[in-house]
Amino acid sequence: MRQEKQSRRTFFKSFTGLSAAVMFFPFQTLMASERGKVKITDIKTMVIKGKSSAYMKKARNYILVKVETDSGHFGIAEAYGSPGLGVKEAIHGLKAIFIGKDPLEIDRLYTGYRYTDGSAHAQQRAMSGIEMALWDLAGKILDVPSHTLLGGKFRDRVRMYDHHTPVDYNDKIACKDWADEVMERPNGMTMHKFGVPRSNASNDVGYDPSNRLLSSKELRDLIEGYENARDALGWEHDILIGCHWDFDVRTGIDFAKGLEPIKPVFLEDPLTIPYSEAWKRLTTSSPVPICTGENWMRRSEAMPFIENSALDIIHPDLRNSGGFLENKRMADMADLHAIPTANHNSGSIVNTMATINWASSIRDYLACETFFLDGGWMDDLIIHDGPICKNGFVEVPNGPGLGIKLNKEAVKENLEDGEVWWD
């Protein structure tokens, strides 16, 4: 058995880094010898209770997924938690179609039952969590990391970005205090995403909460605030700006031009979510990179952005956009158009480590989002030695599947009311 496992690792290692055109050859070849030997017996969920923080004002929860088999192997991953009404129920509603199926037939199981095609039965967030659990399971059955099954890793560590921001951008002292704190954080992150703090009617007569415009005062205050943050940080750290789909196209262009002096890595989600020619106009006019994608369900929704050069960086969330394989295809499509990939990730440590595993297999990759990796309670939901994030990077796990194990006691301490450990 040990010799067989070693030969598998050697076989997969020889294919590391191959192009997307042949990336599934080793997986399909090895799967052929294992076809039909293992069957899915159950799919379970377990919901982690979130906690509010300075960076996440409203507590979220996190839906973990477990796919069990008759061989004793199992795979875990994360589906979208709050805000995501009905995802847990959808997973249990879909469970019956997986029972008795071969867990290695991942593409067929994901695409073959028309629950991801945008029809009235679309259950994309539920299917995404199940799909990633199948990749963890496949890696455990075949005794290789999931990133090896995706074609091999291009990097041994993945850069992270956080949401650690000043209390008041327009107060230079507050920005300096914030920057000093950033420099001392143990995780060493050097990429930070800022929001867009808006005015209110009491201090800005031009502010209208119902339109998509920035008043003249808002625009001036925002640019001044971001310049204060840049001055305090210096140029050793990177800044990102997340807009949450707030603006019309002219406002987006004006905002992007005002940001040029601070050189943000990207301006995220300035326009409404669906594709339109406005995205192309904005990207063509903007002196800073434009980024979007966290709400795409499938690569077909990314396609018009990519083919029309209507963005500079794609930014999908694996829990929204189909898990590993659909997003791998999306990133490969972007790469053909010389567009890099980053990841939205508001999930738990489980989705973070899954995304890191996946990101290692993407050639032109930028960074992965996190709200955690600060040495707190969330990090302890998986077993680890020492800090998970060092110098702003997380090392790619090399164990079978996702290469992680849940810390049972820590998980049990943080379950939502009524939830139980899934043994």
UniProtKB/TrEMBL annotation:
Domain Mandelate racemase/muconate lactonizing enzyme N-terminal: from-to ranges: 57-151
Alphabetical list of InterPro entries matching this protein: DgoD-like, Enolase-like_C_sf, Enolase-like_N, Enolase_C-like, Mandelate_racemase_N_dom
Residues making up the signal peptide according to the UniProt record: none
Alphabetical UniProt keywords: Lyase
Pfam families on file: MR_MLE_C, MR_MLE_N
Top-level taxon of origin: Bacteria
Domain Enolase C-terminal: start-end pairs: 188-409
GO molecular function per UniProt: lyase activity; racemase and epimerase activity
Keyword Metal-binding: no
CDD domains for this protein: MR_like
Protein name as catalogued: Mandelate racemase/muconate lactonizing enzyme family protein
Organism the protein comes from: Algibacter mikhailovii
